[in-house]
Amino acid sequence: MPAKLIDGKQIAADKRQQIKVKVQELAEKGLVPGLAVILVGENPASQSYVKGKIRDCKEVGIHSELIRLPETVTEEELLAEVVRLNRAPSIHGILVQLPLPKQISEDKVIETIAPEKDVDGFHPVNLGKMMIGQDCFEPCTPAGIIEMLHACKIRIAGKHVIIVGRSHIVGKPASQLFLNHDATVTICHSRTTPLAEYTKQADILVVAVGHAGLIGAEDIKPGAIVVDVGMNRNADGKLVGDVEFPEVSQKASFITPVPGGVGPMTRVMLLENTVKAALASDG
Ligand code: GUN
After folding, report:
1. Which of 65, 110, 197, 217 gets the most CB atoms within 10 Å of its CB?
2. Whether this model's pTM surpasses 0.90
3. In which residues is NADP(+) bound (predicted)?
4. Which one is the CATH code of 140-263: 1.10.10.10, 3.10.450.50, 3.55.40.20, 3.40.50.720?
């Protein structure tokens, strides 16, 4: 495999270790960072993500609270819970696991979270600050991608970064973060044709669509850096990304695996944002 593997699992483990030391120092001064996670309903993927987030908190010494609400919860009840957590002094970060049932407006829920506790970085205040380059909570997946490229000493400034996917959680904020790091950024999406004409121009290709096999070796430039954000189950039930890893890894210079690439980085950035929120609350 000519491409070097960007080992998100290892980079995240190293980062968790650093966060653990920081949390211990803060705890000795009487400041224990606290994260509240709200999980609505029984979606298996959401349950699994939330379980991982709570486990990570335990590992580094962050206080965590899991609030489980039934699928039938009303928007009013959920908003009341968010308001209670906004006021709770032991809670510095609030995460409402998405997606939410259809009777609830996700936008309204996100806008109700206090921006200073919005460790997901989804609140319009944080997104607006990111847009004008101010200090803010950066969304965890894009921030994790930047962090893993830094860990591999990959320069971003001046590179042509092509992002495939324009979601609010990954594609759009990733484009802004790469721009803030002086990249030239192109966003592609479902209406971009022909997609390969764009992806072949990428020095750094970020693929966040949720479509197994979307990017093959013929779709990239030799030596490209490929970041695969996709999480799909193939016919055998195996977790795969959006990129045909076996062939693309023969042509790229760096590549992230799935699993063990972007996923662990997303999780560790949530811990980092929670520590940041706790520090900011300390005045
Ligand atoms: N659902 C899928 N990814 C995420 C995430 O990063 N944060 C939240 N809150 N929900 C999600």
Report:
1. 110
2. yes
3. 165-167
4. 3.40.50.720
For this structure, is 53 an active site residue? yes
Chain segment 133-186, per-residue pLDDT in tens: 999 999 999 999 999 999 999 999 999 999 999 999 999 999 999 999 999 999
From the candidate CATH numbers 3.40.50.10860, 3.40.50.300, 3.90.370.10, 1.10.1040.10, the one assigned to the domain spanning 31-115: 3.40.50.10860
Q: Which residues pair with 37 in a beta bridge?
A: 66, 95
> Is 87 annotated among the ligand-binding residues?
no
Q: Has the ipTM of the complex gone over 0.90?
A: yes
Tokens of 43: 């979606």
Contact predicate 81/68, CB 8 Å: no
Q: Give yes or no for residue 199 CB within 6 A of ligand 1.
A: no
Ligand 1, atom 1: nearest CA belongs to which residue? Answer: 98
- Collect all residues with Cβ–Cβ distance below 8 Å to 181 and sequence separation of at least 6: 146, 156, 157
**228: which 2 tokens?**
């695969």
Residue 91 · residue 35 · CB < 8 Å? yes
